[in-house]
Structure formats: C-alpha cells, structure tokens
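A further point concerns the way the authors explain their paired sequence and structure data. Nothing conveys this as quickly as seeing an actual entry. An entry of this sort, consisting of the sequence and the corresponding backbone structure tokens, reads as follows:
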Amino acid sequence: MKRILAAILAAGLALSLTACGGNGNSSSSGEGESLKEITFCLDWTPNTNHTGLYAAQALGYYEEAGLKVEFVQPPEDGAPALVASGKAQFGINAQDTIAPALIGDAALPVTAVAAIVQHNTSGILTLSGKGVDRPKGLEGRTYATWQNPVEQAMMRYCVEKDGGDFSKVNLVPSTPTDVLTSLQTNVDSIWVFYGWDGIAAEVKGIDMDYWAFSDIEPTFDYYTPVILANNAFLQEDPETAKAFLAATRKGYEYAIANPREAADFLLAASPELDKDLVYASQEYLSAQYQADAEAWGVIDPARWDGFYQWLWDNQLLEEEIPAGTGYSNDYLPQ
C-alpha cells in the first residue's frame, strides 16, 4: 500500500510530462466542437481485454458522446494509483488486487464501475503429461508465484479442496512475461488468463492442461478485469462518466457481435501484436465480455461481496470490507 501511495505522488509528475489529459477538461475538435478530455489508464500493454475500448474509439462512439479519450500505460504500481491521483478518470484493475485499497486510512478514492469480462477466466496452465490437470497434481511440481498472499491462499485452497498437500508444491518466485517459453523450462505451472495465454497455446499447437479457479470454487468467480473510476470525478461529473460508459458499452457490444472486425481495430492500434493470436483470442473473449449477464458491464453484488467475504474469513484483509463497497452499477446505461 505504501508503494501505491508513493505512485500517486509520482503520477502527477508523470502525467504532466506526457501531457495526458486532465480532469474532464474540454478541448476543441477540428470542427470547433467542444469535447471533454478523458484519460483512461490501461492495466497492461494493449490486448483483447481492451478491444471494446479501441472499437469505441475507432467507430467514433466517444466523439459522438462528446468525449476525447486517450489511452495511457499504467505507472509501476498500476492503474489504481493513477486513477486515485485524479490524473486519469478511468483505469483497469481487478477485484482481487484492488481489495487492500478499499479499506483503512490509506484507502484509495476509486470505484469499480463496469466489468470488462463477466466471469473469472483465469486458472492454472501447464504442459500436458505432467499430471497437473487438477489442483492435487501440483504436488511435487513447481508453480511460478508472484508471492501475493491472496494468490497463494487461493492456490492452497484449491489444492487442499482437491485432496492435495500444498506444502508439497514447489513455489518458485517468478512473474513470467512469456508464459509458453517459461513452461518449457524449470516452471511446471503458471496462473494465466485463458483468453490470452491459453489461446496462445492453442494457436501454437502446444498441448496444455488447464483448470479454472471458478470451476474449483464458485466464490473465486470474482471480477477481473474491471473499469475503475476516480470518486471525485464520479461525484463532480456523473453525466460525463455515464456518457463514457455508454459509449464503451457500445464498443464492447460491437466486439461481441463482430469479433474479427473489432480485432482489426486493436491490431491497427498495436500492430506489433501477433495477428493470429489476436483473432483467436478475440473469438474467445467476445463470448465472455457479457456472457450470461443482462448487459455488458453489470457487476453482480452477490459475487462481488462473496469474494471479499472469503478474503475476510480467511484472514487476508486487515479489516472487513462492508457489503456493497468498491463498486457501482449506477453509471452504466439503465
């Protein structure tokens, strides 16, 4: 948390140097129309989680809503720091990693206002033939851990629920940037999001085993990733927040209906991406953005609160997060 707060102080300088937007300030388009500037902080380099954003921009949905949106990369400690600082109105994070920032004297002024993907699509990926097609199979195998207490508690829970002994799992501190290469070295298993790394294995024809956290424990079907918003911005300019989310929903709805065309917008913005991977990943994720929800972006209170209750019950929080804390559906189109 100290690192997050330090990043808030640094974010102001970083954004001033890169001239990245402001607090919903107005600018003039080439046709003399006044557009409100929105800075949106990604959680990582552009990928198919972000396709709806790029589709909304390319199709002119933001401009139609009176907005000029700029996408920026996150500071070292992630989008929440930048959003909390007020230098970005919106950003991306996940429900599990934002939990510590919602409580205590150092709580960050951010709120999750939309679910980018409706269900948790993360799990454990490993090369086929190593017997890790189930949690118990991790016994005697190496797992690349980023040494996060919530991460390791979830891993322990899954292994023990499957009848395994978590003490027999060899935890190797590592944050692989190339998952498939790492799995062919001294690491047997890695926590991944199937829509990217799992699909990458399919595209490359590599036989993999995979199990999802939400299949082992329904409580682990939490929201990741989500769109965060700055609380002061929401309070001071709710109509602009609603306009942004309405246009963003249109972008994701387009991606749901038109996976390949939407993928082309992402590739145009980031031509360095592997085209085959982007197309295949987009086909998968376009069915996951909304999934079984009534509309894109909606956050289910029971699932949101249920995961935070699990964190509290397992002594992973310094204080309990009250039900209804940290999210809002009020800014989505009704």
In short: The longest strand covers residues 34-41. Residues 122-220 form a domain with the D-Maltodextrin-Binding Protein; domain 2 fold (CATH 3.40.190.10). Confidence is low (pLDDT under 50) at residues 1-23, 28-32.
